[in-house]
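User: Please predict the structure of the protein below. I'd like the answer in structure-token form so I can feed it into my own downstream comparison script.

Assistant: Understood. Taking the following sequence of 461 residues as input:
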Amino acid sequence: MTGFDIRERRNDIGLSQSKLSDITGIEQARISAYELGKLNLSVNEVNKIATHLEKIDEPALLKLKKKRFQNSDHLDSIIAQRPRRGFSKTKRNEEYLEVLKNLETQFVNPPTTGLKAVSFFAGCGGLCYGVKAAGFEIVATNELVEHYKAIYELNFSHVNFLPNDVQEITKSDIEKILKKHEKIDLMVGGPPCQGFSLAGKRNVNDKRNTLFEYYLKIAEQIQPKVILIENVRLLTSMKDPNGSLVSKRILDTFENMGYNSNFYNVNAKDYGVPQHRERVIFIAVRKDLKKNPSIAESKYGNSVNLFNSNSPYFTFGDGVSDLEFLESGEKSKKDKYHWAVNHPEHVIRWLADVPEGKSAHDNIDSNLRPPSGYNTTYKRQVWAEPAGTVATTYGMISGCRNVHPIATRALTTREALRLQSFPDSFKLTGNEGTIRTVIGNAVPPLLGFELAKFIKENYML
């Protein structure tokens, strides 16, 4: 876990450096220096921090924070005292649901193309969902975490799994795939980038440092027509220990492999996903195809000119306004994944009157402000705009932009799935922590579909 990872995780849950120091016993100055890339912590210290950050949940976080609220065993619910809020279906809710229904239909009955794809670092299968719907048969994949793999297998029942750890995949494993399928048209994946840092330093013991290299070595053996890599946008600024940009290193490797390549900064909302989610996409095209790499143009947005007239972005409300209105602690009678975490009453009081797009940290009354954290935490989403990025902490009301625009609670799993463009038929298994992690880390299936469809139409036909 790099310093950047620690800072991002702290910001997501609203945990200060001083509180992290308290629970780990590691000096705050050392944590601060590590986050800034000025100091290397020991492996034991990094593991200790990672363990505590992984285990921390909302009740534990609240116990760590200074209590500025009145302790009482009989607090009357501020929500119950007021007229019940609610919302109506937006005008474009049915349009968005139709987009998801069409995606589901093409996933269940994909077009017959004869095209083959392989996937690595599959997670729960968000990217693969879109790739399959676009007409590629996914013939092999891998995923390190067994709990994530279980969700993938529920939705992709006939895919051959390679060894979980990409570092254990052998040439023989790949040769078996090539012998069975002769050629692979598309290779996709999102190798973790956390082993690198913005400052060009890294923990030499972090195995994630080499995962890109393994991915590219496998690609070199398979030699697919097109290779796609998805990652966080910050990858374009990350450096290796020699101070070279990781992005340049990837492009240079593709060049040596016989591919023309480039990378593109994309936002999922431009492709019909009701969520602001920035990512970087690398596209590499085998040189014998004699085509330059390019990427699907945006289909949604507010740009109108002589050559293009995009539909407006889908909004938070467009994605979820057909769902039952729920307040803290309530559950849907129809959908087992649409239930709201029961939040502490004092947190409800902080947030009850906070308007859309604002945080409890913005409250004029200091008694209604959280005692620590950032103004991106305890913050409401905006109903009539694309949602903020769905993170693995979406169920924590104290997380980064996790508060529902109208109800006073964190997002439900069904809302997170909708905002990520997963059709309602997508199957889940495992505990709530596993489910939240795979949803928050997933590539939106609709984004995957638009990227794969463009690749099919421009490089395969």
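That's the full token string. The mean pLDDT is 88.
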